């Protein structure tokens, strides 16, 4: 048993060598397969990345086209419609100065001049809203401050305006437009109905929420919540806030009235 013929030893060694070669060949095949799979996945991710980049590029180009169109419209409004309104106002002032004998005509002309002044203000606001450089929060806050100062300058109400926000984050046009309409509607309601002497406006960030709080020390709102929500102005403002994922709250306070507009905030 101790003696093994050389032929058997050779056969045994050859068998071992063939098995090792076969195992090595299998390992090589597995290695090649894994490399091919890895390459395939990398190519697939690359194609997906290129597709995403292409979509992103198209979206950026689309946004750029929209921005260019907004700039063009604002320029055309300023140059064309603004000039026409100014010409109309000048003509009205000329007629008013030269036909002073007709009291009825004077009254109509005064109303016409007031209307053209309001149209000029409205056009400036529209041009401001179209300019892409105003699509930021601090620009919006500066505009609302100026608007409120001009608005209440014709009344005896004292304005207190405060801003606790430092980050100039993007504020997209749809959000800006709806929030501005709510802001203007609130100030108009205060001017017409509140009988207030003081108006306080505060912009702040609280618990990840952008807050606009408007308070007046006037006669307040009805205690019945149904009466409050039934008004078209409040209903429209609630709808506008819902459209931009925000909300309008009207907390009950002892004196005056307070409206709180809240929006999700992210840097």
UniProtKB/TrEMBL annotation:
Residues that span the membrane, as ranges: 12-33
The protein's enzyme class: transferase
Residue ranges of domain Signal transduction histidine kinase subgroup 3 dimerisation and phosphoacceptor in the record: 69-133
Coiled-coil regions listed in the entry: none
Assigned EC number: 2.7.13.3
CDD domains for this protein: HATPase_UhpB-NarQ-NarX-like
Domain Histidine kinase/HSP90-like ATPase: residue ranges: 182-266
Gene Ontology CC, one term: membrane
Keyword field: ATP-binding, Kinase, Membrane, Nucleotide-binding, Phosphoprotein, Transferase, Transmembrane, Transmembrane helix, Two-component regulatory system
Family matches, as SUPFAM superfamilies: ATPase domain of HSP90 chaperone/DNA topoisomerase II/histidine kinase
Catalytic activity: ATP + protein L-histidine = ADP + protein N-phospho-L-histidine
MF terms in GO: ATP binding; phosphorelay sensor kinase activity; protein dimerization activity
Protein name in UniProt: histidine kinase
Organism: Epilithonimonas mollis
């Amino acid at each position: 048993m101790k003696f093994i013929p050389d032929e058997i030893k050779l056969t045994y060694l050859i068998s071992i060598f063939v098995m090792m070669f076969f195992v090595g060949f299998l390992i090589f095949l597995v290695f090649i397969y894994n490399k091919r799979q890895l390459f395939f996945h990398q190519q697939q991710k690359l194609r997906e990345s290129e597709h995403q980049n292409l979509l992103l590029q198209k979206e950026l180009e689309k946004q750029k086209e929209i921005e260019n169109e907004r700039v063009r419209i604002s320029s055309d409004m300023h140059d064309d419609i603004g000039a026409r309104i100014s010409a109309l106002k000048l003509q009205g002032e000329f007629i008013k100065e030269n036909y002073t004998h007709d009291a009825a005509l004077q009254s109509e002309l005064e109303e016409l001049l007031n209307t053209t002044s309001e149209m000029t203000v409205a056009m400036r606001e529209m041009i401001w809203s179209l300019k892409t450089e105003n699509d930021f929060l601090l620009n919006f806050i500066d505009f609302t401050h100026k608007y409120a100062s001009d608005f209440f300058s014709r009344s005896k109400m004292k304005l207190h305006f405060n801003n606790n926000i430092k980050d100039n984050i993007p504020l997209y046009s749809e959000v800006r437009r709806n929030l501005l309409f709510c802001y203007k509607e609130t100030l108009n309601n205060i001017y017409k109905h509140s009988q207030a002497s003081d108006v306080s406006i505060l912009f702040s960030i609280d618990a990840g929420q952008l807050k606009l709080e408007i308070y007046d020390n006037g006669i307040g709102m009805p205690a019945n919540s149904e009466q409050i929500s039934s008004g078209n102005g409040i209903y429209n403002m609630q709808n506008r806030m819902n459209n931009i994922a925000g909300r309008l709250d009207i907390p009950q306070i002892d004196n005056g009235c307070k409206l709180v507009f809240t929006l999700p905030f992210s840097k």
